Amino acid sequence: ANTTTPAAVAPAALPRVLVLATGGTISGRASARSAIGYDAGAVTGAELIAGVPGVGRLARLRVEQIANIPSQNMNNAVWFRLAERIRQAFAHNEADAVVITHGTDTMEETAFFLDTVLDTPHPVVLTGAMRPGTAISADGPANMYEAVKVATAPQAAGRGVLVVMDDVIHAARWVSKTHTTALQTFLSRNAGPVGFVDPASVRFVTPAQQSGYLGLPADHKLPRVEIIYAHADMDGRQIDDAIRAGARGLVVAGMGDGNVSDDALSALDRAVRAGIVVVRSTRVGDGFVNRDVEVDDDQHGLVASLDLNPAKARILLQLLLADGTTAAAEIQRTFAAGH
Ligand SMILES: NC(=O)CC[C@H](N)C(=O)O
Q: 225-337, what's its fold?
């Protein structure tokens, strides 16, 4: 008789999730500053995981601390570190999925950057919190649990980088923080969420769609691109200052459908003549910036951001410029390719 102990008595292997911790409120601790004051990035990723009951039954978790900062301090160096670590983890089959803990202020920017430079079918999910772990009804543990649940769901593959906050699954391209303090602050503008998650289920409501892949600049450098915020009584001073400061690109957070004053438009013409790529986005939260509506983009040589908000338009323009793409028409095509 065969007396070998069957290997099948071992529990089915759980998926492997690499948790990359970067800081934010989800790693926050109360401070003495005020009744609601706290310091973001005071708790490590390992401590964070220890405070999420049941998450160890969803996945085998390995935690690495990539940074521990409030995300208003997020920067290119951390972005490149994240992107390289994720590429390496999947290339060497170290993990089946990645969850990134992150402050909420710039979560949409990090999500969009990674979505644009990573080319992988493996789930990459960002999550965070609006209340520190020491607050009443802290949202971090539930968000972390749900992020791991989404990251380990088979149907999360091939969807690019996702944001999971407050029971909702968002695609990197569309997600924005829309409220300074509310738990329900993330919305997928112009598109709606891609899915929903609760402790029992993960449901996607859109077909899987991989996002644009531009690759990671090999020298880890991104060119200077400035955002100009438009307003009533606007002159061209800030734009001329940006030209003098050596900007390679400008993104206008325009009024309405990406508009600027006549004086500012003349300054943008000077920028284009100086070889600077100018993208018109909007300071309005919802809606597309379309070409050739009030501004004649063809005549002025401008790019319309379409659905991308100023912060994300800046990242896409930086990556295109880093890739050597400077022609407005080609940049416009790439902006349009993401949806
Ligand atoms: N809710 C938050 O995460 C905000 C805290 C901090 N400003 C950050 O983005 O990291």
A: Rossmann fold (3.40.50)
Q: What is the pTM of this model?
A: 0.94
> Is 104 annotated in the active site?
yes
Task: Tell me the angle at which helices 76-91 and 107-117 cross, rounded to the nearest 10 degrees.
Answer: 50
Counting from 1 in the atom list of ligand 1, the atom nearest the Cα of 103 is: 10
321: left (phi over 0), alpha (psi -120 to 50) or beta: alpha
> Locate tokens 């990671």: which residue?
216
Return the pLDDT at 277. 98
DSSP secondary structure letter of residue 225: E
ipTM: 0.96
Can you name the residues that pair with 61 across neighbouring β-strands? 17
Domain 7-204 = CATH 3.40.50.1170:
yes
CB 215 within 8 A of CB 222: no
Considering 3, 4, 22, 25, which one is annotated as catalytic? 25
Closest ligand 1 atom to residue 41 Cα is 10
To the query of whether residue 25 is one of the catalytic residues in this protein, the response is yes
In this chain, the answer to whether the domains covering 7-204 and 225-337 adopt an identical fold is yes
Q: For 173-189, what is each residue's pLDDT tens digit?
A: 999 999 999 999 999 99
Contact 268, 260 (CB under 8 A): yes
